[in-house]
Amino acid sequence: MTIRFTKMHGLGNDFFVLDLRAQDVELTSERILAWSDRHRGVGFDQLLVLEPATQTGVDFKYRIFNADGSEVEHCGNGARCVARFAQRSSGQSDFVCETARGLLTLSVLDDQQVKVAMGIPTFKPSEIPFVADDAALNYNLPLYPDQASQIKVGALAIGNPHAVVWVSSTAAAPVEELGPILESHPRFPNRVNVGFAERVDEHEINLRVFERGVGETEACGTGACAAAIHGMLTQGLVSPVSVHLPGGTLQIDWQGMGEQVIMTGPATFVYDGELSE
Ligand SMILES: N[C@H](CCC[C@H](N)C(=O)O)C(=O)O
Question: Using N-to-C axis directions, what is the helix angle for 221-234 and 76-90, rounded to 10°?
C-alpha cells in the first residue's frame, strides 16, 4: 500500500503529518517507531494525525504521537503546522480542531504565521498530573531517592504536562543531565516535558526544552507557553512574551488565570512524501 504524508516543522520541531481523512492507515507502535527512526525511516519529533471530526462545529480531529510512540494531549508547534496543512487543501484560514484535551482555535494569518488559542493552563496537581498535596507556583523536588539534592520547579499543564526550571543561562543549563531525570521523575506519573528558562527582560526569555518522549528539540510550543505563563507569575514577565528557542522565536500572550494562552509563530512545509508498505 502507498501511504501519503507531508513533512513539516515549527521552528525546527519536525513533524510527519498524516491525513487520515483521505486515506486509511492503521496506526501501530511498530509503524510509528519505524517512521520516526532518523536513519531507517522518515524521522520526526512528532507524528501529527488529522482525522474526521467527531463533533459538530469542528473541522477535524488532531492526534499527536511522540517519536517514542507515546500518544499525547497537545503539541503547539504541530497545531500551527496542521493549520497550514488544512489551509492548503481547503482554502480556509480559520479552524477549530478537537484534541484529547479539548478544542483549539487555529488562525492562519496573512503573513502565513499561525495564531493558536492553546487552551487554559492548569496548576492543579491532579490535572497536570503531578504528585503534590496542594497546588503551588514552585516545588522543591528531590532529584534522587537519597533526597540529597533538590531542584526548584514549576509544574503546570497546557493540556500536556510541563516542568519549568529557571536558570541564569540556558546555554549553560544542564539539559542533557537533568532533562531525562526530571522527564521520568516519579512525581510526574505520566512523565513530563522539562523547560529550562532564562529571563532576558520583562517581555523576553530564552528557553530550551527536553521534551517527553523525544529529548531536546529545536522548539516546543506548549513549552514556550508553560515557561511564559510561569514567568509571568514568578519572574515579573509581562504579556506578550517573546520566547527565544534554539530554532527561533514564538510570541505568547496570556491575560491571567482562567484565560486562554495564545501562541503565534511560523509553520513550514518541507516536502510531500509517499511510503510503500
Ligand atoms: N513532547 C510533548 C508533545 C509535543 C510538544 C511540542 N512539540 C510542542 O510544540 O508543544 C509531550 O509529550 O507532551
Answer: 130
The CB density around residue 206, as the number of other CB atoms within 10 Å, is 21
User: Which residue shows C-alpha cell 492548569?
Assistant: 122
Active site residue 97: no
ipTM for the complex? 0.98
Asked if CATH classification 3.40.50.300 holds for the domain at 2-108+267-276, the reply, yes or no, is no
Provide the pLDDT confidence category of residue 144 given band limits of 50, 70 and 90.
confident
Of 70, 101, 222, best ligand 1 pocket probe by most atoms within 8 Å of the beta carbon: 222
Give the pLDDT confidence of 223-273 residue by residue, as tens digits.
999 999 999 999 999 999 999 999 999 999 999 999 999 999 999 999 999
Ligand 1: lining residues by beta carbon, under 6 Å: 13, 45-46, 64, 66, 72, 75-78, 160, 193, 211-214, 220-222
The grid coordinates listed for 5 are 504524508
Mean pLDDT across 185-194: 97
Location of each CATH 3.10.310.10 domain in the chain: 2-108+267-276, 125-259
CB atoms within 10 A of CB 55: 9
Q: Is the sign of the CA dihedral 251, 53, 272, 93 positive or negative?
A: negative
Would you state the torsion angle of the CA atoms of residues 121, 69, 163, 78, taken in this order, to the nearest 10 degrees? -50
d(CA 80, CA 10): 7
**Whose grid coordinates read 522539562?**
194
CATH class of 125-259: alpha beta
Match 510531500 to its residue by C-alpha cell. Answer: 272
The catalytic position among 81, 97, 220, 225 is: 220
Cα–Cα dist 245/23, whole Å: 35
